[in-house]
Amino acid sequence: MTILDGKKISKEIQLEIAKAVNKLNLEGKKTPHLAAILVGNNGASQTYVNAKVTACKNVGFKSTLIQFDNNISEKDLLMKVDEINRDKEIDGLIVQLPLPDHINSIRITEAISPLKDVDGFHPINIGKMALNIPTFLPATPAGILELIKRYNISTSGKHCVVVGRSHIVGMPISILMSRNSNPGNCTVTLTHSRTVNLKNITKTADILIVALGKAEFITSDMIKEGACIIDVGITRVSSKYTKSGWKLLGDVAFDDIKDKSSYITPVPGGVGPMTISMLLLNTLKSVTGFDS
Ligand code: NDP
Questions:
Q1: What is the reported pTM?
Q2: Is 119 a catalytic site residue?
Q3: The domain 14-113 is classified under which CATH number: 3.40.50.10860, 3.40.50.300, 3.40.50.620, 3.30.465.10?
């Protein structure tokens, strides 16, 4: 069994990005600039946005954090998005989700210029992704592809089962794994909460990608011997063994499953660290284009 070390791969990617930024600077070209909008004071969102801004600094990007109170109107938020869309200095824009209930997040996502949509959530970019046209890929699915690629895991002709169909993880990764590319060329089964006999399906997976948000949901009796297990889930649970009083668990019962699998991602340290690196990569591509 091999542990897919997302932390290590993520560091390698960030070093490669830092080198690319250095090269851009030496050539007198533009330094990539990411703008992040944060609405309200949701603790988790603040942590995620701060981590993204710090990661930008570490690779030599410029970054701008724009914070609004929870009660900003949808109209004002749309005006800010429009202003950033037209700002030539800014290359990428993310609006941290979730947004307050009075703001329609789909309307905000659609308002972001597809050319600056480094989260890869805009319908135009989702469409391009489905058609295998180079574009910004959603960061977490892109991180999964990159892990698979860097560990040389063969995917062609394999049965890939995805658990969860969210717009940010399950749906896009199911499309990406079925595309005629490498990684890809899988036969994909996308499952969700209405799926009947889930265990019968997960047991046939050569590659199992789990993103449902239920701690240790997948147990060893649900997987095939030698399967590759990608665990996207992150759930914070209380723990009397840690200083903080809590720990993070994945959607997969890691200790129960690890010896039955061929490859497995840990939580934390698997898919999680890859997500930020892929956001940075998208921001770099917004300056260099999609060929490099
Ligand atoms: P969502 O809550 O948006 O979606 C969960 C999906 O799981 C839904 O499609 C739901 O089905 C499905 N589901 C729920 N219960 C079951 C069940 N019993 N059997 C089969 N399917 C089920 O979650 P996200 O995709 O946003 O996130 C999933 C997990 O991944 C979370 O723990 C989240 O924190 C984590 N995450 C981690 C990231 C990272 O960087 N590592 C990034 C994003 C998320 P239905 O559609 O029918 O409701």
A1: 0.97
A2: yes
A3: 3.40.50.10860
